[in-house]
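Can't paste images in this forum, so I'm doing it all in text. The chain is below; anyone willing to post the predicted structure tokens underneath?
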Amino acid sequence: MTREPYPTARRENTVDILHETPVSDPYRWLEDPNSPETKGWLLAQGELFSEGRGTQRFKSRIAELLRSGSVGTPAWRGGRHFFSRRTPDQEHAVYYVVEPDGTERALVDPMEIDPSGLTTLDAVQPDKEGRLLAYQISVGGDEESVLYIVDVATGARVEGPIDRCRYSPIAWLPGGAAFYYVRRLPSTEVPENETQFHRRVYLHRVGTSTEEDVMIFGQGLKMTNYYGVSVSRDGRWLQVSAHEGTAPRNDLWVADLTASPIEQPELTVVQEGLDAQSGLVFGRDGRLYVHTDLNASRARVCVADPAEPGFETWRDLIPEDPEAVLSDFAILDDLERPVLLVGWTRHAISEITVHDLATGERVGEVPTPGLGTIGGISERPEGGHEAWFGYTDNTTPPTIQRYDARTGETTLWAASPGAVEVPDVRTSQVVYRSKDGTDVRMLIISPADDTPGPRPTILYGYGGFGLSMTPGYSASVLSWVEAGGVYAIANLRGGGEEGEDWHRAGMFGNKQNVFDDFHAAAEHLIATGVTTAGQLGISGGSNGGLLVGAALTQRPELYAAVVCSAPLLDMIRYEQFGLGATWNVEYGSAEDAEGFGWLLGYSPYHAVKEGVPYPATLFTVFQSDTRVHPMHAWKMCAALQHATSSDRPVLLRNEAEVGHGARSVSRTVDLSADTLTFLARHTGL
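Text version of the structure:
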């Protein structure tokens, strides 16, 4: 079948000389989304995609499976608790409060704020007494969060909007009269291309103008820093952390707010300049609990005296485990023998153990519903004998489980509200060997009927920033497998499944390990008869879009179809767009000769070669994406359309008014249906 001709994309003779190396960039003009030429090209690509879209054959089933809804882990404040829930017919989750008598009220409903569905709830934080709620919303996918405060009892707005609060923590002081938060400097105070950066920590008093906010921290530090801030439950201890971009390390300070004014806290160094990530919990017993990967790739819990918090004083309470990554902990102290609950992921599967709080001795484990993923463990801030945690697996929509340390029992506290019939699937975990001999794990979800023979298969991966790919309920995965396909998720290096060393084995100059792990996963699926190269599709988004971009240029013969979503693909210029300047601590910088060599060695846009029969490829990008600029996919799409010698299509799905993060359910259904339909068509499902 002869494909439709592609829209004309002018090729420029643009060549940069970097570190004495010529770097060609024929489609640089596509970096400007506002130029008439770019707009015309995007319009033509949209028409081409629409013509070849076909029937969204998975749409109704994906929508049906998403009617499960969702439910979030509760946050307790005195007698009240707060949680999120999405019912079967809702586009977005709603944030609720439950009074001590059980009365439930909606506090923040994105659809009530904006019936178009374009407004998303980015973050929430009740104050320490549960009387005020801070929440952050953004519109159209731009993630530029605006902060509001509401009175919990009445729902009345107390304050806001306060803009420039993207990714801001809210650290309430007792009484709810003030909080610390993070806000960017005004655009008038920074260069035009740096408006996404330059964060500072401020103290804000509720009811006063933000013009009166006091800058607490961040002046003179790196423009790409992100800051964390929190205040202990009793209001005594302030904790401030600084990450340079997404670097897997942080500097950390504490201040005793009873010994210095809240407007000028005297910060004491906990760790500075260390190649480690640490976070603090101030226990009700007077001890300081430290979650750290310092000298422990898989993390450990230490204890110290808050008055002498420096890392030199830390002593192990829960040592590093040789196989499991320590992810979370919670203190239950309203018991004759207080305990520490410790969350772990063992080869991407979650578990919780119980330890004596004083000694760290393991005294039991928390029963969990199955082999899946556990969300954050929460307890009552004032202490108690109960804990709550989220649980999901490949066939279980999100649930909230309650653990009672007095009885040792786990019970279902809240289920996702929608009743759906989940298909019967089988999940297995396999170990395969990568190019350099490293063992890598992969989850394989397949139909339960055990019919032999290769099947159309989707291989998914991410492999970056220490993020772990763990089991979870997915309408797309279940729809694909129910239709007769196989879905595989590889736990590549660069992720966090095996700890920080595993992450670093896929960073900087080690990035090729990630791609080699992915190719080896594909080869394993073919060698074991799960699929064939002609039936194998690959999918990834963001850093995972970079992964599949590298895969299709390095091994085009290995894959039949590719879905590349919100990707990084021009690795020479990525730092100049979106939040790219915060990622050179993961990838390296083209300004540095060594980093330039790494990046050019695998940059997908620069690896496209004319006359190669590339796989069928669908780029899905989001016009309002302020994290990863859609220019990456635009340029790569033009390059592939020019270069490929295959009749298999290279298409672009360019979506407006959404961004990199949260979106409405109906938008999710449409995107998932389009991608699965494309993959099915080109893998033979």
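The first helix runs from residue 36 to 53. The radius of gyration is 25 Å.
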